Amino acid sequence: MTDEALVRETESGSGADGPKLRKNLSVWEAIGVSVALMAPSMAININPQGSAGLVGRAVPLTFAIATVAVLLIAYTFVRLSQRFNHSGSVYGFVGVTLGPRSGAFSGWAMAGTYIFYGAVTSMAAGIFLTTLIQESFWKGAPDWVGFPIGVVVLALVWFLATQPAKGGTRLLFIVEAVTVTLIVIVTIVVAVRLLAGNAPGGHHFDLSVFAIEPGSDVSAVFLGVVFAFLSFAGFEASATLGEEARNPRRDIPRAILGTAIFGGVYFIVVSAIEVMGFGADAKGVKAFVGSGALVGDLGSQYIAPWIGTLITIGAAISAVACCLACVVGASRLIMALSRDGLGPAPFKRVSVKHGVPHVAVAVVAIVVYVLIAVAWFVLHAKPYDLFVTSGTTGTLILLVAYVLATIGAIKLLFFTGERRVAGWEIVIPVLALIVLAYTLFRNIFPFPVGAAWWGPGLAIVWLVVALVAVLARPAAAVRAGELLSRSEGLAASEPSRALR
Asked: Which domains, from first to last, does the chain contain?
């Protein structure tokens, strides 16, 4: 079908609201968005350092805990996406199960997560590329160079996000697949040398990386788990493409579950080998935290310098791809909210030429630019400071959205008068709620002091503003509820047999 025919097709069924999103994505392209937003090659090169600063050598333990939690949470998204397909993702899921106000709140929460992650990923690209610059031709390059690099990255992402989603998602998946493959190869080589006893520095295979150091606070592990959650964040992003997938109630659940399982195995194994490769003692942990790119440095030490350079370049490209996925996810959520009257009317516009919410894309990019400008020119922070703060903020907001989605799933599946699944399955979402609740509690009580308060502080501010904005417009919420109930993507159906 030609582009002109596609435009005519979408316009013919769009009514007064203009063209709709195009239904042209396969399961692999849906996986592309989830994997790209999760950004495994970027995440494994920088996120474990945040956990190491809190739990020392026990970084793989935080990823193991996060993996269990994510698989429990994945149950919620799999079950809901088997019955509903809506570009609002959490907004649509929560709105149809808990009511429009709860849905609107969770939708704006999730949009906030993606926006803050846009800052995280643009800064990650800046950090990786600054490291390459320092190691190649400008050894004295200051850390702030990461800011202008991030600005350029965001400009590129803005352009790509205004193009048709089909080509963009294919690009994201290819980039991640190639980079992850290289990281896996390096991980295998490092593991073999550790087991053979000929690793640099006398390091060896050491399962103590899965144990908390003696004398450490066990509950502190859940502070480190936030950075593990940050690595997984986005595994459910394919849900935002529910209105663009060809067979959404089959393909979207598969994409979500497959991404969660892959991420769990990948992050646990690679993070364990990373810590062992640097050394599980205090000296090794210090080197681990100070690394410019974890797998990149291991590739240089254990194989050859050029391998490390390739890994770092791949991690930078992964960060760009992840930033693109963040902007794509946030723009779909904002478009869906605005389409239902819970956001400014211009934000719902969809490009006739490309079939994407171009106004919402611009809004997301501009907000991320503001975050970068404030950190750079007002607070005089470093790119890594913005990375950590935005990562913490986005993850805590994300966990709140997960809580609401999980409660909604419990209500829909077990308390609507018609049993949707086996009764024993209620244990899964209840366990998910317990893990989510404790992780949130441990990160805000006792409330952090000093610079550490920015992460949870900004998360609370975003959530409060979202709540006030929703409560202040009760008529809009009622109208949104009516629109949600009539939405094509939120008409309940039986789940795909392939995933029952």
From this structure: 20-492 (1.20.1740.10)
